[in-house]
What does this fold into?
Amino acid sequence: MDIPRTVSVALADRPVEGSRCLEAGAGVGATTAGLVDAGASRVYAITNDRGHALSTRERVGDESGLSAAPNGKRSGAADRLAVLEADLRAIPLPDGSVDLITAHGLCNVLDPPALSRIVDELHRVAAPGSHLVVDDYDPLPNDAAVRDLFAVENAASELATGRSALTFYPSSVLRDLFVGKGWAFDRERTLLDPVPWTASHLSAHADAAASFAVNCPDVVGDLLAARAERLAAEIGNESVGRMYSLAFRFPT
Amino acid sequence: METRPLGNTGHDSTVMTFGTIALNWLEQEGANQMVEHVLDYGVNHFDVAPTYGDAELKLEPKLRQHREEIFLGCKTGERDYEGAWQRLEQSLDRLGVEKIDLYQVHGLEYDEELDEITGDGGALEAFREAKAEGLIDYIGLTSHSRPSLILNAIDRIDDLESVMFPLNPVVAGKDDEEHDYEAVLRRANEENIGTLGIKAFAAESWPDTDELPERDRPFCNWYRPVCSPDAIRDRFDFAASQGLTSVVSAGDPKLVTMILEAAADYDGLDEAAQRSLIEAARHDDSPVPEQLHH
It folds into this structure.
């Protein structure tokens, strides 16, 4: 699969080759593909979404590209990839077992309590001297049209599950959070500016709102789902906001 | 308008090259106005070909008037010595000029064609004779074909001074070898060969003719172009920021003024904004639904 530039740029200055990697929140496999392509000796792609686990395995596991492990042995993607369907609040890996952790577009789908617990877990599985890459979005400016769509998605999620679907943390907040856990801040770079929210993103967010709305009190749910769909259609697409990449080291 | 050195030629081309195929779709009076309009923006590099309808003939009157202001690129699709000579003489005649500044192998598509062009009795023999006689100054090549073929041509044609090839955010977002025109750009820059970008404004292929007959297409380009001023500007800025010498304007005259405006205002594009355009194109084109993120 094509590896997004957001991923390749975030990984470009990290020692992926020969590393045991953990992709926290695998999504549709983009970062997992980037790690495999960059020569990771092992990639654990963890997601709690069965559809994402399947698509990551299908899209990345079948890649025929060969990379060298530290011992010089060359193996294909399937031999180096383990897609795990699991809760990141209880990562099924031992303490100190990975050298590089990526969380690409993960934190914005975590509310503060979940974020806090996952930060603890990432800390637990990180080996001394390991690297951490956290890529996410700054809060959108007040005049961004897509804010309205995300507000509706959050309203539906709050009513259905009691928590927000999306939280855009400023880079400084995530930096300070990880530093507070003992990670040493290494660098920040801008991945996207502006961020292109395309018609396909907006339609995916409208669909997400609709799936939360199913579990809302009926009239409210229908209204929110319809509102999300209308907003996605009206906005069409919008390029706004910034996606950033933070990198940290775990003290040896 | 910004200018950049065209490889080793000593010529500084404007960051926009006028693709004169646009003249084919205009009457003579409109074509004359278009050339004046393009020159008013300071564009100094024009590109034409005998296969662009009657673009050569429509360009001729204004070319005669402004010959000194225009670096003229022309092409031939002929692959053998005789054919290339005939086509060159025909273009000189139709364009009403004594010399073509840059004469290009047009639309290289197959390995066998490269063998023929570079072999005994091939088109390049005619190019070199014409160069010795002062009928052309420089030799170039254009191709929409596989990047590996263009790289091969760079290796095999020692006196190549320019290459013309596709570059846009859709292509840049694809990692496979078939789309790695950035490798062509890198190699050309290493060897100080001028680079001319085409398809900068291409959005997607036209739908099947059953769905949209050719006569009902709203633009004369081979592809559906982007057409809003903002999108034109984004696409121009992207192509110009990749390190090309010059970006060739789109073939439909309706788009030319927007491209001129973008070229005149061009002031660089930072890397995060370049990635933003690649990312937008990647999602427009993505086979995977339901992506919330980038």
